[in-house]
TrEMBL record:
The lineage of its organism: Bacteria, Candidatus Blackburniibacteriota. Gene3D superfamilies: 3.10.310.30, inorganic pyrophosphatase (n-terminal core). This is DDH domain-containing protein. It comes from Candidatus Blackburnbacteria bacterium RIFCSPHIGHO2_02_FULL_44_20. InterPro entries: DDH_dom, DHH_sf, DHHA1_dom, Oligoribo/pAp-PDE_c-di-AMP_PDE. Residues 259-329 form the DHHA1 domain.
Length: 330
């Protein structure tokens, strides 16, 4: 189990306050939702009031998690952050990951804490606990709660194991001995792995499966230097025709199964003028470094980007793919 030097300081800042602000990151995933709900339950057990905000609708298939309904769908940019004394941001590598707006300022009077496992974390808070060796923010929280000696109820255990399962594809990647050790402890504490797996992998809306099928249909392989990558791009109009951007999820995990390739990049025009991309690495290539070319980031094996643009989507896609190709050819 990992001890973190920031652990006492974070507990101290919690003890000094009554109300805590939590915020999911945009396009929240299982780690974001699971970690935030686990922390919210722990804070409630410590007698605190918690408010959880999300700029985007959290995935519906996570509605089995306790306290899921307590997430308020509102962009943190649109609330009075100044009324809080403490804000804790989980799983967000930079400040702009928690808002759909272009800017977000955090008032000076508030204590801010970041707990995250992204290598590319910008350490934008006053207290930053960043552990890139951890599989997920959920894994870090387990260590933190253990250090704090707070009770981990079966509900909290389920939230944490969901967070870990989400970021590791249920222990297929980013999984270390510590990851499995923590997972085993969580199961002993009452987390339901079977229920988690069912909800994570067998509740995909048909529209989302159809979106992924379209991504697969469009996949191309590009060779650059000694590297080969799979890519696909869907425009706003194509996404609308398939049911809308809330179903435009996934595809990159399928791309990374393609024999003879190094990584996958799936691009989508989420809104007019906003392109997001998700990278998944199949070999040892560090996709976070490629995402950084576009102001994105993430992990060696999984990373993302978001680009605002004015030109036609098709042209922007070409530019992005060419830039990736040039980078790899160097
Ligand atoms: Mn994560």
């Amino acid at each position: 189990m990992t001890d973190y030097p920031e652990a006492p300081q974070i507990l101290e800042s919690i003890n000094k306050t009554n109300t805590v602000l939590l915020a999911l990151h945009i396009n929240p995933d299982s780690d974001s939702v699971g970690s935030n709900l686990a922390l919210a339950l722990v804070l409630k057990n410590l007698g605190k009031t918690v408010e959880i905000y999300s700029a985007d609708v959290p995935p519906q298939n996570l509605d089995f998690l306790p306290a899921y309904s307590q997430i308020t769908l509102k962009d943190p940019k649109e609330i009075d952050i100044g009324k809080f004394k403490l804000a804790i941001f989980l799983d967000s590598s930079d400040k702009l990951r928690i808002t759909r707006h272009e800017h977000l300022s955090l008032p000076g009077g508030i204590t801010t804490v970041v707990i995250d496992h992204h290598q590319t974390n910008t350490r934008f808070a006053q207290i930053n606990l960043v552990d890139p060796k951890a599989s997920s923010t959920g894994e870090i929280l387990f260590n933190l709660f253990s250090f704090w000696k707070t009770k981990i109820t079966p509900e909290i255990a389920t939230c944490l194991l969901t967070a870990m399962a989400g970021d590791t594809g249920t222990f297929r990647w980013a999984t270390t001995e510590s990851t499995l050790d923590v997972a085993s402890r969580l199961i002993k504490l009452g987390a339901g792995l079977k229920e988690i797996n069912f909800n994570l992998y067998q509740r995909t809306p048909l529209e989302q499966v159809r979106y992924q099928a379209e991504v697969v249909r469009k996949m191309k392989i590009k060779q650059a230097g000694n590297t080969k990558f799979v890519w696909a791009a869907t425009s706003f109009e194509e996404i609308e025709a398939l049911g809308g951007s809330k179903f435009a999820v996934g595809g990159s995990d399928i791309g990374k199964t393609v024999e003879g390739t190094d990584f996958t990049l799936v691009l989508r025009e989420e809104e007019k003028g906003i392109m997001t991309g998700s990278f998944r690495s199949r070999t040892d290539i560090d996709v976070a470094k490629i995402a950084e070319l576009f102001g994105g980031g993430g992990h060696k094996a999984a990373a993302g980007l978001m680009i605002r643009f004015n030109e036609p989507f098709k042209n922007k896609v070409e530019e992005v793919i060419n830039k990736v190709g040039e980078y790899l050819s160097k």
